Fold this sequence. Notes:
The protein is of the alpha+beta class. The protein has two domains: 14-181, Fructose-1,6-Bisphosphatase, Chain A, domain 1 (2-Layer Sandwich); 192-313, D-Maltodextrin-Binding Protein, domain 2, CATH 3.40.190. It is built from seven helices and 15 strands. The protein has helices spanning 14-21, 26-48, 66-82, 205-216, 227-237, 257-270, 301-313, and strands at 53-57, 63-65, 85-90, 97-98, 105-113, 124-132, 144-152, 156-161, 167-171, 177-181, 192-196, 220-221, 241-244, 274-276, 296-299. It has an eight-stranded mixed sheet, sandwiched between helices. Strand 1 (53-57) and strand 2 form a beta hairpin. The longest helix is centred in the first third of the chain and has 23 residues, at 26-48. The protein is globular and about 50 Å long. The structure holds 6-O-phosphono-beta-D-fructofuranose (F6P) and manganese (II) ion (MN). The site of 6-O-phosphono-beta-D-fructofuranose has 8 residues, from loops. 6-O-phosphono-beta-D-fructofuranose binds next to loops.
Amino acid sequence: MTSNHCPPTPRVSLNSHLFQSANTPDELRHLINDISRAAKYISYAIQTSEGGLAGGSNSSGDDQLELDVLSNTIFEQHLNESNLVCCYSSEEQKEMVELSDDAKYSVVFDPLDGSSLVDANFAIGSIVGIYEGREIIGRKPSEQVAALYVLYGPRTILIYSTGNGVHEFLLNDVGEFILFRENIGIADKAKNYSAGNLRALSDNPKYDEVFHDWLKRELTLRYSGCMVADVHHIFAKGQGIFSNVGGSKYPDGKLRLVYECGPLSFLAENAGGVSLDGNIRIMDKEITDLHQRTQIIIGSKNEVEKVCKQLKETSE
Ligand code: F6P
Ligand code: MN
């Protein structure tokens, strides 16, 4: 006789996937597990808090919501408790924060990307990159040893890579991340596009041309205004392109190299996608400031390369 109370088999937890399939070093596996626990608290906080303004702004000048501050605190607590993190840097804090002296890893994160969309009940997420060693300045996103994001939408999902494929997990009702899709791939050809910082069309004729080319070619627009949700659409559909290109208001686009573009580029490249700043790989960009912004064009190889060519050609 079967019981309703047994978990369905086969089911693969995040921990067992890290351990058995991805062959992750123990300390890194523990750290990713600790970060995934932080994400469960954030998921719960989103569902239960009222989400007003906290009254401050972060180092990029964005208004901070109570949820931004709370998510940041939840991350800090879990990273501190792990004893595996020597320092961390958050989009919500100006400086790096020192934790356990001799620990092996530095963690960079955007605790709640797209948080201003929470009152609209849109999907929002946390983005994380992990480096070995203490310094972030002078490094490149290609030096990350792992990256992950958690998307709090109709379902809470976690996507990670340690350089061994990109894998997706679904948070179940008892609070465990269970394998949903393994080895996610991004095809070379895009059918969907997700165009950010469109205010730049008014003074960046090259971006205007790229956008109108997408309209003319009848690609399908999918844009929510939360980077991690919009980039996740590419992973979920296995194709697509996301762009955030500069104009006079944000010459380097709106997004941050360390907290947003670096980790998502690590994941996209591990899924066979491409991520460029218009000229070079995001993964090859040197970090000169923790909060530096960068343009990003990420997703299906053929479309990303075509767009970068268009952005260059029309400027000459
Ligand atoms: O963190 C900045 C952010 O909220 C991203 O999540 C998002 O992609 C971007 O801003 C949206 O910018 P815009 O609406 O100007 O395209
Ligand atoms: Mn963000």
